[in-house]
Specification:
By secondary structure, this protein is α+β, with helices and mostly antiparallel strands. It folds into 2 domains: 207 residues, Ribonuclease H-like superfamily/Ribonuclease H (Nucleotidyltransferase, domain 5, 2-Layer Sandwich); 51 residues, no CATH class. Helices cover 31% and strands 22% of the residues. Helix 5 crosses helix 8 and helix 6 runs parallel beside helix 8. The N terminus is likely disordered. GO terms for molecular function: nucleic acid binding. It holds the Pfam family DUF5641. InterPro entries: DUF5641 (IPR040676), Integrase_cat-core (IPR001584), RNaseH-like_sf (IPR012337), RNaseH_sf (IPR036397).
Length: 333
C-alpha cells in the first residue's frame, strides 16, 4: 500500500485530543461542577396490589465532574415538575452547585423512539423557563455541550451506560415498586461511589481513595446484602429478590470496572507490566459488595520468553500467587 493512502488531507485535519477542562482538574467541593443525564424508561408500579398497572419511571443521574461521585434520583415520570423535584432533592442532600452541565436537547434527535419523550421535555418552553428560574434562584450557571457531540459529556455518559446496561440485565422482566426501585438504586449509588480512584499512600498497608471519601470523609465499608441461591429469589420473598438484584449488579459492574484498569492498546506489546512493589486490586470470585481486595507484588515470575505472567502478592491475610490477568494495578495519583 502506498504512503499516499495515509496522508491527511489539509481540508480534513486529524482532530487532536485536548486537555481536560478545568472542572475536571481544579480543586473544588464535591458536586460543585455537576453533569446530569437521564436513563430509562424502566417499568415500575406504585404499589404491589391486584389491579394496579405498571408505569414508566426514569433515572436522573448527577455526576460530580471533579471527584467522579454520583448521585441517583428516581423520577416517576418525564415532566418538568418531576425533574425539578429530583433536582431539589439532589441539592438538599449534596449542597450547593455552581455549574450544571448537560447534553444539548438535539442529541436525542434520531435516537431510539423511547428517547423522544426526553427530547420533547428538554426543548419544551415550559421546561426551559422553569429550569432557568430554578438556576437563577440558586445562582447556578448551566452549560450545554454542543449538539451531536456526546463525547463532550463522556464522564456522565459512561456512568449512565454502566447504570442502565447492568440494571437492565439484572432486573430483566421484573416489575419493582417505586420503593423497591429506589432501594436498589440507592445501593447501586453506594457501590459505584466505592470504586477505587487511586492510592492514598504507598504504605505497606495501602489504602485507596474513592468518591465516598469526598462525600463522607470515610470509605464505605459494608453493604448489607446477603448472597442468596436462585431458589430463594422468588416473587414472594421481596427482600431476597432485591438483595439478589444488588449482588448481581455488583458482580457485573465490578468486573467491568476492573477491566478498565487493564486496558491494552495492542496485544503484541507489553503495556504497563507489573513489577515488585506495585499495588494491585486482586480479582476474586464471589466476594461481598464493597470489598476491593488489595495487595502488593512481592515477586514476579518471568516465563521462557521473559514475559511476566505470574506474580506473588502480599495481602493482609497472607501471600497469594496469581496470574497477572487477575491483577489490576492502581494509579499512584
Amino acid at each position: 500500500m502506498c504512503k499516499s493512502c495515509f496522508r491527511v488531507s489539509p481540508s480534513h485535519p486529524t482532530p487532536m485530543m485536548a486537555d481536560l477542562p478545568s472542572s475536571r482538574v481544579m480543586e473544588a467541593k464535591a458536586f460543585c461542577h455537576t453533569g446530569v443525564d437521564y436513563a430509562g424508561p424502566f417499568k415500575i408500579t406504585l404499589v404491589r396490589k391486584r389491579g394496579h398497572h405498571s408505569q414508566k419511571a426514569y433515572i436522573c443521574l448527577f455526576v460530580c465532574l471533579t471527584t467522579k461521585a454520583i448521585h441517583i434520583e428516581l423520577a416517576s415520570d418525564l415532566s418538568t415538575d418531576s425533574f425539578l423535584a429530583a433536582f431539589k432533592r439532589f441539592i438538599s442532600r449534596r449542597g450547593p452547585v455552581s455549574f450544571m452541565y448537560s447534553d444539548n436537547g438535539t442529541n436525542f434527535v434520531g435516537a431510539k423512539a423511547q428517547l423522544d419523550e426526553m427530547y420533547k421535555l428538554l426543548v419544551s418552553n415550559n421546561f426551559i423557563s422553569a429550569w432557568n428560574d430554578e438556576l437563577t434562584k440558586y445562582r447556578i450557571i448551566w452549560k450545554m455541550i454542543p449538539p451531536r457531540a456526546p463525547h463532550f459529556g463522556g464522564l456522565w455518559e459512561s456512568n449512565i451506560k454502566s447504570v442502565k446496561t447492568h440494571l437492565n440485565r439484572v432486573i430483566g422482566a421484573q416489575i419493582l415498586t417505586y420503593e423497591e426501585m429506589l432501594t436498589v438504586l440507592n445501593q447501586i449509588e453506594c457501590l459505584m461511589n466505592s470504586r477505587p480512584l487511586c492510592l492514598l499512600s504507598a504504605d505497606p498497608n495501602p489504602e485507596i481513595l474513592t468518591p465516598a471519601h469526598f462525600l463522607m470523609s470515610t470509605p464505605l465499608q459494608y453493604l448489607p446484602a446477603s448472597e442468596l441461591s436462585a431458589n430463594q429469589m422468588s416473587l414472594t420473598n421481596r427482600k431476597a429478590l432485591l438483595d439478589g438484584l444488588v449482588n448481581s449488579y455488583w458482580r457485573k459492574w465490578r468486573l467491568e470496572y476492573l477491566h478498565t484498569l487493564q486496558v491494552r492498546q495492542k496485544w503484541c506489546t507489553s503495556d504497563n507490566p507489573v513489577k515488585v512493589g506495585t499495588v494491585v486490586l486482586i480479582h476474586q470470585d464471589d466476594i461481598p459488595p464493597l470489598r476491593w481486595p488489595l495487595g502488593v507484588i512481592q515477586e514476579v515470575y518471568p516465563g521462557a520468553d521473559n514475559i511476566i505472567r505470574v506474580a506473588l502478592v502480599k495481602t493482609k491475610s497472607g501471600f497469594l500467587k496469581r496470574p497477572v490477568v487477575k491483577l489490576y494495578p492502581l494509579p499512584l495519583e
